[in-house]
Amino acid sequence: MSDQETPADGNDQQAETTLNDAGGGDGDAGSPPSSIGSDTPPAATTKAMRRVSYADSVPMESAPGDATAQTSTSRSSTSSQKFFRRRRRSTVSAGSNHLWGSMLRRRSQGGAGGDDWDAASNLTDDEYDEVAMTCWQAFRVGARRSAMWTRVTLRTAVTTPSIGLPCLVFLVISISAGLLIVNEFVNSETESRKSKAVKIAEQTDLFFVRVLENAFVPLFTMAQFVQELPEFRELDVRIGSRCDPATDAANCTNSESVPVMSGKSVTHRDLSGLFATPYGKALDARFNTIAAGIKSNSGLGRALVNIQLAPKGVVSMLYPMVNCEDFDGGYCMNNTGAWGHDLLNDPNRVAIARATVPADGVVTAGPLKLIQGEDTFIARLAINMEDETLPDGTVLKHRMVVDGVEYPCWGFAVVLLNWALLKEESKIYDEFEAEKMQFRLTRTDVKGGKEKVVIIAESANSQIVEDGNVTLSLDTGDNGWTIAVAYDDGFAPNYKVWAYPLIIFGSIAFTLLLMLILVSKAEHERLLLNLMPRRAINKLRKGEVVVDRFSMVTIFFSDIVGYTKMSAEMTPMEVMQMLNSLYSRIDQLAKKHGVMKIETIGDAYIAVAGVKTKCTGPEAAERMALFALDAMDAVRQFESEDGSSIAIRAGLASGPVVAGVVGSSLPKYTLFGDTVNFAARMEQTSKKMMIQVSPTTQRMLLDAPTHDFALEDRRDDSGELGIEVKGKGRQYTSWVHSANLTKKPQTAPEDPEKGLGR
After folding, report:
1. Backbone angles phi, psi at 530, to 5 degrees
2. How far apart are CA 145 and CA 96, in angstroms?
3. pTM value?
């Protein structure tokens, strides 16, 4: 504030202008614990303490106006005396070892004014824009900035429970919820796909069921003709029961039954003799006419490839015998090999034939590879008929014996359906291919008590259905039709592969975003808490007026000796570099002791104890005194690279104040009251590297709860107790030299967000 030990009037005006008296000192509730007047010597104290006597002190400094010979008041230790002697100077010059002199020397040697600061700090964004850099240099600069920002952000997030814990909880919840939602969608889509597969399989089953229902019409129609036409009714009697001369020669010699076919005695009967008769020829012609009409009107089109009658289970009449019209590519279905086929005696067909006789309705089988060479779907209907007596008295006994049981049955009506054409007309391949599905249609044959599964239709990649499929038993056929269906990519949707990683990475990204927001908020909150107490911040957020009263606080003022003259000779960058380095250290001490920094005005440093941290008057004075002593030690240790140093002076005053925020633009937490001006006077009348305290502060320190302070009464140049203070008259102030710990503190300044304001 001044290059002299005693401030000029201008400095007094500056202090009064900067921190105005709010006039609330007298109206504040509460009073100092000791009634110390400003115009009477301090009363004797009984508290055990080490007081430095006036006789032990070194000679006082010269008058404030004498700039050629300055002395300092000795501290209680020899090291402090050496410190002052080492730093004693008569005048500030470019050749001295003072920090200002070092800067002057560098400037006189041609150094750029801002080199010291530029070397110790990063360029601003605008300065970077003005510096020509290569792409690689720009990348490195950006990478360093990003790395530094990332480290600071992560450190803040990890060390702040209110950030790390919510982010961790959010990450766990978001990942869990995301996975559950995706899993729910996957399950829903899987069930939807399965339902769709079942629906298509049911549509396939419905098609074949309808085809069979259409096939039933020719069967029942043919059975009706047999029952109504006499020539058909006696055909089973004419064919007769099977008789093989090779095994039963005695009974078959005079038998009128149709004989077995030579060379195929097991599976065929020889019908050539019967149908060579006029009866046989007429019957065959009648059958062809009826069957042709039934086929053309069946609605089955080319799928109905053959209509048969099998009296006594022997295939006797077939239409058409040779079918070329219902096949493409010049292929003809030749049925002559099936003529005379004895279904009840063919080992390969006996099971189906025997099942047909006692059945009440249509019996289906297949598709089977027939004698004709084609895979054919077979439908049979037993033609039941009671015995009848002809006009000539002949009794026609319509009997068939199966497994020792005699049934009133004439035989079968049979239709053959082209399986290949049925599959084509069902569009089974197109339907499944369009839905990107694979299928396998099977039937289950039972032979000799053993089941055999036969594939009757399948898609190109039907092996897929072996792993995961939907299986449906169809109502088509009497030999266990089953269709298995699966999607090419499985029933689970393919987005499952990338949805889970996306949820995880997305949750991490949103967590990082939340972390950045919380870190930004925490940094903003921390910045505000460095400027004012939390209660003031809360009031500002609510739009309320911030006014706090404090009955007893201790205020600290300090400035740098010789700052005014030297700052005029230095560049602003050099001054800023020095002040930033020094006051950053003092800021750490303020945080350590629970002291609130109010502001810095030029070289002046202003702080207060008892505002931000809840404490009593003696506790506030103790914290501030300890802070002031540590600040002095920090200044002693503060040196530039070439060993240059600086010196400060400090003053403390205790009393009531009013604190608040004035205005709405650039809000600043400011102290008002006579105590503020008194603290400024204590600093202005202090000496280099000395701490001067007001009488009230002295009394507070005598009552300090945990430390014993070494105090020395200040005397004027004539040796009289006290000094004259502008606007206060004679004040009996003291020097604070050191402090000793007397007992362990019961409380530590851990909560800087609570205060005594009300």
Report:
1. -75, -20
2. 39
3. 0.52
